[in-house]
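Model: You mentioned two targets. I'll fold them one after the other.
Researcher: Yes, keep them separate.
Model: Target one:
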Amino acid sequence: MKERSFLYYSLYVVFIGALQFSLDGYFYQLITPNSGWLCLNAVILSACLANFFLGRYAQVFLQIKKYSEFINGAFYIIFILDFALLLSLIVSPKALEISYPLANALGLILLILIIASVVVIYNKTKKIDRFFVFGILFLIIGFIMFILKNFGVLPVNFTTENGSKLGTGMEVIFLSLSMANLIRKMRDEREEFQQDALQKSEEMNEMKSYFLSNISHELRTPLNAILNLSKEISKDTADDAIQKNSNLIKDSSYSLLSSINDILDFSKIEKGELKLDSEEFNPKQMIEHLVKNMAYRAKNKGLGFNIDISDELPEMILGDKMRLSQMLNNVLSNALKFTTHGFVTFKVECKPLKNGKVELFFSIADTGTGIPKEKMNSIFESFTQENINNKRKFGGLGLGLYIVKNLADLHEGKVEMQSILDQGTVCRITLPYTVVAVEKKIVSQPEMIDFDLNGKKILVVEDNAMNQMVIKMITKKWLNTEVVFANNGLEGITILQEKSFDIILMDLQMPVMDGYEATIAIRKGDAGEKNKNIPIIALTADVMETTKERVMEIGMNKYMTKPVDKEALFKNIFELVV
């Protein structure tokens, strides 16, 4: 609607200019010096078209239809009469004799309708565009002077001769100011709309984060029990059938956990929240552990699994161990998934760089289904597999390579793919790392076989019975360790006030008082001055990046996610208390 008002106003200015151009004789002198029909009718044609576009501009700009159907209908009657007058000039040359007074009469009625529109709108809204009102006022003054001069009421002098021009000129100035005012309002409305859209977008992102956080929590909580129980059952029995079924449960749970992690990582990538951690780790140990699991999966599928790990790998590097494992796991899983016969080859090489840096090269080759050439440009996009039939045949979300590519970019590395349909695929990953000198390692590593905390006492603040059972199952085999449970943060603080503990394992989402509130209260001294600096490990099913940041901000010492890895849990506790 508002865009049309600009068009109508522009055309009105053009034709009102043409009208003055014709009245002053310039149309005859410059355009039709040989006279003719167009020359004779130029004034009335310009006047009729100027009337029409002024009327349409006022009708649209004032949005009179919202306030008075009667006046809006009257505008259309004037438009019909205006075009009837134009048509009469074409049909009958004699119509020119009466066209001037008729055009003046239509123009006068049009002005009356515009004035009536302004009055009606002001009565209903108490608002009106003052520039529009002044512009129409000057037009009326110029029009009245023009009419009165033609009827001989006013003398012919410079003022009356140019009064209509002056009125029209002032009208155009004020209507232009009115249009500028409209542009400002439109800009303000657009900015307000953008602000509202931004606010809604932020609210939707918050809701999405809250939803994903809850989904993660609700799915990881039972998975924590399923995974750890299946591990313990597998270890505690010698029955091959039970071990086989336990491993099946464990593998299925890890598959589900991997899909949950992919969805959460996809959300982090979308919001630009995916970040890399930095820790010292042994790349060879991590790769060998990963390869062991992949070789087991390949054997179950009847595939060959070839491994070639360079002896030149540094003993320790600085980087994100978990993300490297995730990248290699995603690519190796794809290679095993899309290979029905033949083998998978995993090769790791190393290239030393300057300033204590090193580049690790990972190559994963398979004899699987391959990827068509036309699909190669889209393999790193989200929710992409070779085609929809493959997605049904092989399963998966189609997020694996998308996440690998984004993680490689965060490492400032690269991922390259080569594939031949029905012959196989080769994926090459190049990642830079900082080499850590082994002699600089200060923290002594505990003997994981002993699981001995030397008489330390642990307070576990956890409301979920399944998670309590998992912690009991893990810690019951630890030597010289006492574990006490609290069902919420408030109960945990009460127990802390009564007994001494060496460390706290704190869940985050709990009734009565959650883990955040409990930690803040402990750090403030509500559980006693002696407990203000007690080590606290967040043990949560919430893996969102914002959760991790908040946990550290409020004073927790470490952050761990469920399902709980018993070796990692013991290592973290050992480092903090022993």
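Model: Target two:
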Amino acid sequence: MPGPQVTIDLERIERNARTVVSWCEKAGISTFGVTKGACGMPQVARAMLRGGVSGLAESRFENIKRLREAGIDAPIMLLRSPPLSLIDEVIRSVDISLNSELAVIRELSRVAERMGRLHDIILMVDLGDLREGIWPDDLVPTVEQILELPGIRIAGLGTNLTCFGAIIPTEVNLGQLTELADKVRETFTLDLKYISGGNSSSLPLLLAGGMPKGINNLRIGEAILQGGRDTFLDTPRAELDRDVFLLSGELLEVKMKPSMPIGISGVDAFGGRPVFQDIGERLRGIVNIGREDANIEGLLPLAPGITVLGASSDHLILDVTEAATPPVVGDRVNFRMSYGALLAAMTSEYVEKIPMYDRHAATPASRVSIFADEAVAPVLRKQTLDGRLANIGYDVDFTTATSADDIAAALERRATPLVFGADHRASFTAMKALTRTFDAFGLIWLDAVAGMLPEQPDRPATSESALYRALGLGAGDEPIVPRLSPENVVLIGLRETAPEEVEILRAARLKIFTIADIDALGMREVIRQAVQIAAAGMQGFHVSYNPAVTDIPAYLPGSGGITVRETHQAMEAIHQSKAMRGMDITGLEGEAEPRLASLVVHFALSAFGKRIL
């Protein structure tokens, strides 16, 4: 039974970001997109960047690492005050940090100088919200001490409002920030790049025309991620979409029950004393969402006529009496979430996160372009691959020109490239071509080996390091990241790893199904998960297949691999997903044994939709 799920509409995030950025740009304000509400999900970060934000802002090092490993190289601002215990990590991983403590800034200076770096800081000023910040009277003497420190550059001033004391941004308090900035500039002849006037709660002031001149940066999360559900609580902005994140759960029970509990009332499982009103018998539903999954008080049912009554750790109790369509067991119920509920749901390991991107464009191409080098082209022509593809409805062209430029040109013609090469260098070339057409794509890699061997410095690219290079771990050719994120890469059928690969694979965020996993789960479940992971938040995925993954009779490299039928099953599921944007097949040589060539061609045909009937 599926558990709670959060669907994330990345197109809506992009539109919201573009709207907020346009508001801010008119006032000369740069925007950093805050990703902490989405736990640093790379797909969300990319959507914000497509929407025009100048950089990203995060509070958790785990999330910053996640963004960097996804190949996102945009400026990242650390929102949370840096802890002394993690100063090395601050200097290594972020471009700007928000600071208020001299002891921390001194340590940042020491580490930055040791690493040979110049670290930018924004000094936070407390304007009355009573969270972090230097008291205004102490600002000038603090700046004076910081200017003596090497390795540190004061990039600006900032403040935080509404988060703790619920103090609303006004012309008065943000005007005080600009006055302090002017004082610092005049006293020390400093060039302050950022005067950061807070978060989403500053947008109403901006739109009302009250933002003081001199505020030139905002750190925006909630308004982009939730369309200002909390920011514009009383006066929603039609330009912003509020349904980016939707939480859903499955109805486990639907029954008529009294509205008043029966028996002696005490405290509930969380120490509270619930209050009930007797309104007679009501139709109640129980959903598989609990306090371990979300902040229940921040859930609003999407369908009219449904009311949240309360929750235990695992069950959400609803009154569904007035629902327009009477719900039944097994139905899914959708909820909008407050920012607090969103944070809880996104950080809960029990809630599945499903990013969605460009759903309407997920239609298969009607043209296939076959690319094969001179050695393997005769084998494919003998197997009449182009004619067989034509027989199942494709317009087909065949060429022996196999450069990334040639493949990219086929993609521009809205064809699906089918690339044949001797080894995984062809895979790298095929994926490189995809980066010219798609902003984000996943990868399903079917091979007995991972292609994650570290590259040797100053050596030509090798097949054994193709995926290592694609993920930006090596040198040389430009990597495929950030368009290809490790979180959307799935390896299927892994049987062999070199000692040098083991730790790399363990540390990577790849999803790996070894041959033992396939034995345990079955190919149907493995490929279901693989398609879901590779397509999550992407514009589709690329497929890389090598026959060494398949146990083909008389073909020694495939010994002990997945079966021929399991290979077909995987390819059929890939076609059914309608999300394959390109495919490469490696390991087929010019002298290939006819049975091997025939099977490989049939696998390719299955991936493109060939059926028995």
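Researcher: Noted. Anything on target two?
Model: The mean pLDDT is 94.
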